[in-house]
């Protein structure tokens, strides 16, 4: 086991390149099962989650080869099994993404309930409803079993704009007979990446980037060479880190369009950046002050489906707000346990009132002090790293596996920015 040892109080400074989007890489890896031909994926982040997904492919019989730095070549000419071993499903929620392509390709799929972040209940009902509507049968015992004689396109209205359920429905529909129309579809950049990759493989998907996707099924898909887009969640995390430590950062490989929803919420905390081409710069001369709403009202930073502010960044914003002058309400609507990490921030000296499982009022700036922290999930773990780096004194962060599931080579990259952080082995 490993921990992070962090000495806070040092502003970051330097340049890094944005990693590939984790949430795009995972469905694109699963989608490689939809063809017998080779799929080459570029800009795949070197993180725990992508490693587990590639191991699942190998277990199912696919040939997986490293084609270079952040490049993987996948050939699923033969699928030898359709049940995913439990040692993989318990590690990663994204294992559910194999249901759609396995059913579409073989008519069968079986997996145990997926694991992942500890952020409260995460419904899978929308996955089951979508696949059932397309013609699959679902049996739920101690595991999930999907079977289908034939998938047929249909008009689907998703009961929630779930990212992974949209992706599963799309992957099943591309090989279904006839037309599928998905309304209330998720439209995040990672969903767009998956759809663009599938079209490159020969699928016929229109409406990409909107909440209505139209898919005309095809009989087979071919190979493709596709590049994953940048991870705007990681970019947002590093912007927050620069602001909280009163430092500066330059991030290359950024998609400016992805940053528009983030810019509105960050500006409420007085945080700004400049983008030129694919390079984003956060300067150290920020006046970190809450910009109140009209009439001097307390502003609210809340999440919503894309193109709203991403829920994965509410943890980051909570920590950053502790270093900003003024009061702000953080409203995380989606997961009832995501905000429960704030007790650790309070123990470090943050002035936060947790109103209920979804709302926290943050007043700053607060002087934080080092503490022993335990990461409950990817984003809260990164938020704890930011808090530790902004704090006075030393901090320890345990359960760093959760952080490294989503952030590539985090310690080395932070060290390159001047952070005083070490990854140490503990018994």
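Q: What amino acid sequence fits the structure above?
A:
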């Amino acid at each position: 086991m490993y921990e992070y040892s962090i000495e806070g109080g040092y502003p970051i400074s330097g340049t890094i390149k944005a990693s590939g989007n984790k949430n795009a890489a995972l469905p694109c890896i699963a989608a490689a099962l939809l063809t017998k031909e080779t799929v080459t994926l570029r800009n795949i982040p070197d993180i725990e989650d992508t490693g587990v997904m590639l191991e699942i492919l190998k277990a199912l019989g696919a040939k997986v080869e490293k084609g270079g730095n952040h490049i993987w070549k996948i050939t699923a000419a033969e699928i030898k099994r359709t049940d995913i071993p439990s040692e993989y499903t318990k590690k990663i929620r994204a294992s559910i993404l194999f249901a759609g392509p396995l059913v579409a390709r073989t008519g069968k799929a079986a997996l145990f309930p997926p694991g992942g972040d500890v952020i409260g209940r995460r419904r899978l009902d929308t996955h089951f409803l979508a696949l059932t509507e397309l013609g699959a049968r679902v049996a739920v015992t101690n595991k999930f079993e999907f079977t289908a004689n034939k998938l047929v396109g249909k008009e689907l209205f998703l009961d929630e704009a779930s990212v992974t359920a949209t992706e599963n429905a799309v992957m099943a529909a591309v090989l279904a007979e006839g037309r599928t129309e998905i309304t209330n579809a998720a439209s995040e950049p990672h969903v767009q990446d998956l759809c663009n990759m599938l079209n490159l493989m020969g699928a016929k998907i229109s409406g990409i980037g909107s909440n209505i996707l139209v898919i005309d099924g095809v009989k087979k898909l071919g190979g493709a060479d596709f590049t994953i887009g940048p991870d705007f969640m990681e970019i947002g995390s590093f912007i927050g880190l620069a602001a909280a430590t009163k430092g500066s950062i330059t991030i290359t490989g950024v998609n400016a369009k992805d940053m528009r929803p983030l810019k509105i919420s960050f500006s409420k905390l007085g945080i700004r950046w400049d983008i030129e081409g694919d390079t984003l710069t956060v300067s150290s001369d920020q006046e970190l002050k809450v910009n109140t709403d009209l009439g001097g009202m307390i502003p609210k930073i809340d999440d919503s489906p894309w193109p709203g502010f991403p829920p994965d960044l509410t943890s980051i914003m909570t920590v950053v707000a502790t270093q900003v002058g003024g009061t702000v309400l953080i409203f995380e609507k989606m997961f009832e346990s995501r905000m429960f990490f704030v007790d650790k921030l309070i123990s470090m000296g943050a002035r936060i009132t947790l109103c209920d499982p979804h709302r926290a009022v943050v007043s700053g700036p607060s002087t934080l002090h080092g503490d022993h922290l335990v990461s409950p999930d990817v984003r809260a773990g990164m938020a704890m790293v930011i808090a530790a780096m902004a704090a006075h004194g030393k901090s320890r962060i345990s359960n760093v596996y959760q952080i490294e599931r989503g952030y590539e080579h985090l310690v080395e990259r932070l060290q390159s920015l001047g952070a005083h952080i070490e990854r140490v082995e503990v018994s």
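Q: And what stands out in the fold?
A: Residues 78 and 394 are 52 Å apart (CA to CA).
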